[in-house]
């Protein structure tokens, strides 16, 4: 009897073989497609260098390298000091406004560095209101005094520190919150002052987190294009852009991109190393509400100032300036603004939707139990975020142009028709580049959402007769709704802010808010640039608020909602 | 025809063998407990039965239908088994009634779910959500959800260990009664020998992926297959010795017969603490008390066996609390002494 049943069941059983299943294949394909641009750039480093490259390496390459290193040093030190310092103040001390600062310190994250750059230029250059006021008050003429030049290397460092310190703040604050109070209290009983406890215990324990945060902000700084281009500080990204569009030499641009990729890879390795050591976060498992140190009036005032300055300089001042300019007579009219906004939506909405969809596919695929190859593939697919937009643009454009040319040649040969460039300069190509870059953002958020669904819930749903797809639809997706929204929003904002890839890849005459703001600012038409910039900042604030709320809930030992 | 049958099932994780040539058949209406320390392969066995792990070697059949063998495994959703976890795995976004109705594909799903909820005594909580329920209530919802689709096989992974001790006994009895009424073949995984003895029709004692002994609770307790099996149910006093020409092993408590072993072979003698009792007759042995503790219904008394030997542990009922140094006369119940080849 068992034998007949066996034959009956054989076909159904055969559908489920070990190793390769549908999800693995899907995940592998997705990963392969998204790894292609990076592989493209990396392999171009091996192709023979042309005349342009020789010219570049003899003239500007050393400048690119020095500038990039100086920029990284400045940004690294600046973000570490401000990020870790404010994080310690708001987690460990009690002073007026501390609760407000706790989330407001995230706000500068909403401002793209390039927006800050031209806002400050508008405020502080010779013709700006600050120097004008100075001259009115003192009666000096322009040649009578020295004023720091915003459009310089120190200026670029300052701009990036102001918008990037929240990365360090984010991770070190989490690390300080996770630290067991016991360790700090024992330190105090062994004779440490509050500051001594910070230097000798708090900071060393948070060191892996600090390294992670600094590495993140350095990757952003290396990938920045708008600020350095606007300030005429030549780094790799501006070099790639100029080599590509100015000199029209994709191979040399790819060489530059490959060099930049090496630097990013080194940073990623450093970050991985730091995270590997992060195990000593949890020295004991007992948590109590943090006994915050009440500060005396003078130190309380100093703490307030230390927390308020980054917020004022990185968010309030530029936001107010932009609002004033946007509402002035020279502000952008509504009609063109709506056109740019529509173009931005045309790119950002499909990208956000696709990124979340792919992230769910990969995340759920991983959960269903992938082979090792599948896991590696997902890791590669989620790597794009570390790679600068300019590099990704090169990596996408080269193969796409090749494909276009091949199709064109084939069509001409067989049908006598020239198809020209189908994909190059198409919206689809731009969205693909965005996906390569921002898939990781969606993926990480979706992954943390998936963690809320315990493996035994999967097992329960399956044993109750639901297929994997049905389980995803009825259990995982409803439970992850908040994460999915956050993921989509994060990608949306990132696309909205993105500059270099959009500049290099967009369809002819297709202007987004970011591009128009940047172009107008470059033409010294700051008032016109203000409205689109303000729109970018305003939308950028949304995920910042979501994120700071989520983080506030995440302290171990505190009541977490919904569990 | 067995409700659930494992034939020659072997499963590896990398190099490590988790389940080694396992053969168990569970009849409909029978409760078989997989008992063993953590890492013995019992949970893997359960996951193989549910289809949550892909079978590598052997064959698993449910209700006489093969669901997995070397050529492939039927997906979990096609096996019609009920599954209950330690953490219950209720879906937090669904109401209690929707949770229970989740696995029912018939048209009157909600009515069926309500009936299942009524059976576990939670008929009025259908509109609540999982986090609003106590641990015991959540466990009952998990049970209702698992039985609602009327599975022929019920798999339970440490289903009661999330409950506090006083609640546990009651929930166990209720669960057992309900499972008996469904007639399902039940496979229950536990590391708690008392739970296994309380729940099981038969117990499969596992160690390092192998079934060491399969039998009724009484067989396992009174006729353990080896020293490990004997020790798993209760810690015992152990003595090493050699079987003499008279077929007995000498111990500090006197000779113990070893009919199954050849004279001259090494042997281990296990004597359960319950096997020792106070005895004033001439057969008994005078021993000096080291310390005594009251455990409630009985007492734990340690006796000195002389230099170089661990103290002898006895559980005396009714409890005695002799002061240290007292000399008492002790004899051994031969039914609770076990001799195994060492």
Automatic annotation (TrEMBL), chain B:
Give an example GO biological process.
quaternary ammonium group transport
Example GO CC term: the record gives: ATP-binding cassette (ABC) transporter complex
The answer, when asked if Endoplasmic reticulum is one of the entry's keywords, is: no
**Keywords attached to this entry:** ATP-binding, Nucleotide-binding, Transport
Give all residue intervals belonging to the ABC transporter domain.
4-233
InterPro entries in the record: AAA+_ATPase, ABC_SmlMolc_Importer, ABC_transporter-like_ATP-bd, ABC_transporter-like_CS, Mo/tungstate-bd_C_term_dom, P-loop_NTPase, Transp-assoc_OB_typ2
Pfam families, sorted: ABC_tran, TOBE_2
The UniProt entry's coiled-coil ranges are none
Keyword set includes Cell inner membrane: no
Q: Which GO terms describe its molecular function?
A: ATP binding; ATP hydrolysis activity; transmembrane transporter activity
> By its UniProt entry, which PANTHER family does this protein fall under?
SPERMIDINE/PUTRESCINE IMPORT ATP-BINDING PROTEIN POTA, SPERMIDINE_PUTRESCINE IMPORT ATP-BINDING PROTEIN POTA
Name of the protein in its database record: ABC transporter ATP-binding protein
Instruction: Tell me the organism.
Output: Zavarzinia aquatilis
**Top-down, what is the taxonomic lineage of the species of origin?**
Bacteria, Pseudomonadati, Pseudomonadota, Alphaproteobacteria, Rhodospirillales
